[in-house]
Design brief:
about 325 residues, mainly alpha, Rossmann fold, Tyrosyl-Transfer RNA Synthetase, 2 domains, about 55% helix, about 5% strand, binds tryptophanyl-5'AMP
């Protein structure tokens, strides 16, 4: 089964990226045919510094590898290294109704945020994402909840294209994790943990002291009971999910363990769980950050493999759309 997913090179990965997306990638790469991408072209839709992009792309690749993506098992590459992504995106532009793009939740939020500097790339973002997915005849796309709507649009676009030009694309399905699909902010547990709000994040490669400090300062709720109740106690519920997923312990068992304890004891124990679980990632990240040549070679090999799949899809697309 073909799997595809992508991550933007826009700064350090946080525990939401890990629990919502990467943890699924690690399981899938053991048995499926996986393609993972650093989506640098998507990162251009928000204001950015051109001189910083190469470093950020390399850092994102290091993050993938440090968190366990194995280049022997999966294809890892950079989106702009395979020009078929932009070529297909243009063609898909011509089968996608503007109305479908205007109703995307992420577009609505971002267009409010970038009111003065609103570029067309931000509106067309999901089309490039559909091109990423459809180029590889992807069946399953593991993502966090915030990307579900975009994957569904990719599915609609595939269907529309196939109907108009004949069968070329597989209709992809979204894969969400049961519990980690939407990890909430540490500073405001009613909002999503997001790279664009740094105070909200627990990063995958934070040092033990930072982890302790951030968890002890995480916003919790009134009361003192350690109980999973996302409506009344969103702060504690979010921390329970993180504890449960990282330690692979069911939530009721954690509630029982802390029945007679307060928030402070629970947070101390959670900090230790996070520190211990992320220790191997931190180690590997430090090691790989020194091995730039090796990481670039992985990306170059990855682009070659990705390109041969992408080219064969594009050949079919060109034929079907009359571009001969
Ligand atoms: P990005 O870079 O914002 O996020 C990478 C992955 O992390 C997930 N995620 C979360 N999951 C749980 N809780 C959170 N708080 C949280 N925050 C982020 C995201 O859902 C995502 O799976 N547009 C995509 C990248 C992309 C892509 C693709 C994904 C480009 N092309 C094709 C899949 C297929 C994005 O910006 O992800």
């Amino acid at each position: 089964m073909r799997i595809f997913s992508g991550i933007q090179p826009t700064g350090a990965l946080h525990i939401g990226n890990y629990l919502g997306a990467i943890k699924q990638f690690l399981e899938l790469q053991e048995k499926e045919d996986c393609v993972f991408c650093v989506v640098d072209l998507h990162a251009m839709t928000a204001p950015y510094q051109a001189s910083a992009l190469p470093r950020n792309v390399l850092d994102a690749a290091v993050c993938y590898l440090a968190s366990g993506i194995d280049p022997e098992k999966s294809i890892l590459f950079v989106q702009s290294h395979v020009p078929e992504h932009t070529e297909l995106a243009w063609i898909l532009n011509c089968v996608t109704p503007v109305g479908d793009l205007l109703r995307m939740t992420q577009y609505k939020e971002k267009s409010r945020q970038f009111q003065k500097d609103l570029n067309a790339g931000l509106l067309n973002y999901p089309i490039l994402m559909a091109a990423d997915i459809l180029l590889y005849q992807t069946e399953v796309v593991p993502v966090g909840q915030d990307q579900q709507q975009h994957v569904e649009l990719a599915r609609t676009i595939a269907r529309q294209f196939n109907k108009r030009f004949g069968e070329v694309f597989v209709e992809p399905k979204t894969k969400l994790t049961k519990e980690g699909a939407k990890i909430m902010s540490l500073s405001d547990p009613r909002k999503k943990m997001s790279k664009s709000i740094p105070g909200s994040c627990l990063y995958l490669f934070d040092e033990p002291d930072q982890i302790k400090e951030k968890i002890m300062a995480a916003i919790t709720d009134t009361g003192r009971e350690i109980k999973y109740d996302p409506t009344k106690k969103p702060g504690i519920a979010n921390l329970l999910i993180i504890y449960s997923l990282l330690s692979e312990t069911p939530i009721p068992k954690i509630e029982k363990k802390f029945r007679t304890k307060g928030y402070s004891d629970f947070k101390k124990a959670l900090a230790q769980v996070v520190i211990d679980t992320l220790e191997p990632f931190r180690k590997k990240h430090k090691e790989l950050a020194q091995r730039e040549v090796y990481v670039k070679e992985i990306l170059s090999q990855g682009a070659k493999k990705a390109r041969s799949i992408a080219q064969s899809t594009m050949e079919e697309v060109r034929k079907k759309t009359g571009l001969v």
